[in-house]
């Protein structure tokens, strides 16, 4: 089943439905209503009010995003008037014009309605999507500018999330230059590309969306990243593009997760369509300060696990990882004899037909991996020099003494 096509149709249907509801319920107030002054909150002697438009029941972690954005706005002295369409009634839609401006949180759903409200009531709306540290700061400043509030201190806001701290740490060097392929709805794909490039130091090697309504914006972002945008609802085309791009991490929908699994690439889901497993029981927004923390965890952990597996593979011959020691995978590590047997074919192909005995192989596995190759080569050189056809543990000791 093509879930990308289904998701695109659902988003298009939700956008049109929300637009028609807004237009129908407020059209009678258009002619009798003056244009809304975004500074009227001062005249009314109250805090400024905004509408949060775009979140929907089937959106990607929309409930948590709304909580996070409401919290941020409240800290800035701004009240939320209406959240729609998520949880909104017809009475709520009619109260949209009680706010000074609109927060267009998800453009695929709310942009058409925001444009109609702007044309007919003069209500300004935001264009910045607060996903990532930089965009969240820009979002707050955009809201402040529209409401004529003093701009915030950028340095103070940057410390609201742990993502910048980690990005400046020594360990972040491991992330620099990692190749990432991004695909999803327009809102999340664009935001993910900016975070990957500007905040985590990844190299974006692919960017696309199934949201044809946002194709122009996605193409513009892709151009800035020197990649060609992929606009399609065919998951097989996306999988083919992933294969050609050869990324080290995929950020996409549940369809890309399946494709990435087939290709053996780590993946984190960032957009609908999604599976129930992509809806954590804990508070997990994508937007705002906490959203930046969640994104860091969700994106970086697959790469860290890859590093961990790589280290375990390198150390698997060391005695600490054998003889019954437990691995993080939950099963007992391979027995020493099993490892020796698996390497037997390699050992038999040593120089000049020299054969490693069981005692020699057992002793070699105790040598740290980063010098094991040199020890093996030197021991074989010693055996050839001395005319020894089989290398035992004693031969290895003698070779060590000889080359010391």
Task: Give a quick set of tags describing it.
five-stranded parallel β-sheet, 10% strand, 404 residues, Rossmann fold, alpha/beta, Helicase, Ruva Protein, domain 3, three-stranded parallel β-sheet, elongated
Folded structure, characterized:
The protein is α/β, with parallel strands linked by helices and 404 residues long. The chain has 3 domains: 3-158, Rossmann fold, CATH 3.40.50.1980; 163-311, Nitrogenase molybdenum iron protein domain (Rossmann fold), CATH 3.40.50.1980; 336-403, Proto-chlorophyllide reductase 57 kD subunit B (Helicase, Ruva Protein, domain 3). The chain has 17 helices and 10 strands. It has helices at 3-26, 40-43, 62-75, 90-94, 107-121, 133-147, 154-158, 163-167, 186-199, 215-224, 235-245, 254-263, 288-315, 336-348, 358-364, 369-386, 393-403, and strands spanning 49-53, 79-84, 101-104, 179-184, 203-209, 229-231, 249-252, 267-269, 355-356, 390-391. The strands form 3 sheets. Strands 6-5-4-7-8 form a 5-stranded parallel sheet, sandwiched between helices. Helix 10 links the parallel strand 5 (203-209) and strand 6 (229-231). The radius of gyration is 29 Å and the shape is elongated. The model is unreliable at 323-336 and 345-349 (pLDDT under 50).
Write the layout of secondary structure elements.
Layout: H1 3-26, H2 40-43, E1 49-53, H3 62-75, E2 79-84, H4 90-94, E3 101-104, H5 107-121, H6 133-147, H7 154-158, H8 163-167, E4 179-184, H9 186-199, E5 203-209, H10 215-224, E6 229-231, H11 235-245, E7 249-252, H12 254-263, E8 267-269, H13 288-315, H14 336-348, E9 355-356, H15 358-364, H16 369-386, E10 390-391, H17 393-403
Parallel strand pairs: 1-2, 1-3, 4-5, 4-7, 5-6, 7-8, 9-10
Helix pairs in contact: 1-5, 3-13, 9-10, 11-12, 15-17, 16-17
């Amino acid at each position: 089943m093509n879930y990308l096509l289904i998701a695109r149709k659902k988003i298009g249907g939700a956008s049109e439905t929300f637009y028609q509801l807004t237009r129908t319920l407020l059209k009678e107030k258009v002619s009798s209503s003056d244009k809304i002054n975004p500074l009227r909150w001062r005249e009314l002697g109250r805090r400024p009010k905004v509408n949060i438009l775009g979140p929907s029941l089937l959106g990607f972690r929309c409930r948590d995003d709304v909580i996070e954005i409401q919290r941020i706005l409240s800290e800035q002295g701004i009240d939320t008037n209406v959240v729609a369409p998520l949880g909104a009634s017809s009475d709520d839609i009619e109260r949209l014009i009680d706010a000074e401006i609109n927060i267009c949180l998800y453009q695929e759903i709310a942009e058409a309605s925001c444009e109609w409200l702007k044309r007919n009531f003069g209500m300004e709306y935001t264009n910045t999507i607060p996903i990532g540290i930089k965009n969240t700061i820009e979002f707050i400043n955009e809201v402040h500018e529209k409401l004529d509030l003093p701009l915030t201190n950028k340095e103070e806001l940057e410390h609201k999330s742990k993502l910048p701290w980690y990005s400046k740490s020594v360990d972040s060097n491991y992330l620099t230059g990692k190749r990432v392929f991004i695909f999803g709805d327009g809102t999340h794909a664009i935001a993910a590309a900016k975070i990957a490039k500007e905040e985590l130091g990844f190299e974006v090697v692919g960017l696309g969306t199934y949201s044809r309504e946002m194709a122009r914006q996605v193409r513009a972002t892709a151009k800035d990243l020197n990649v060609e945008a992929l606009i399609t609802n065919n998951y097989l085309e996306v999988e083919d593009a992933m294969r050609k791009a050869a990324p080290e991490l995929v950020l996409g929908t549940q369809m890309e997760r399946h494709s990435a699994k087939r290709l053996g690439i780590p993946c984190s889901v960032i957009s609908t369509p999604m599976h129930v497993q992509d809806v954590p029981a804990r508070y997990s927004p994508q937007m705002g300060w906490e959203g930046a923390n969640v994104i860091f965890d969700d994106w970086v952990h697959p790469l860290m696990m890859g590093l961990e597996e790589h280290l375990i593979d390198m150390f698997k011959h060391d005695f600490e990882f054998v003889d019954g020691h437990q691995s993080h995978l939950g099963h007992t590590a391979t027995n020493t004899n099993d490892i020796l047997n698996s390497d037997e074919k390699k050992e038999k192909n040593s120089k000049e037909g020299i054969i490693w005995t069981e005692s020699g192989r057992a002793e070699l596995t105790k040598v740290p991996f980063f010098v094991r190759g040199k020890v093996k080569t030197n021991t074989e050189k010693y055996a050839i020099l001395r005319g020894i056809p089989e290398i035992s543990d004693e031969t290895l000791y003698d070779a060590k003494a000889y080359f010391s």
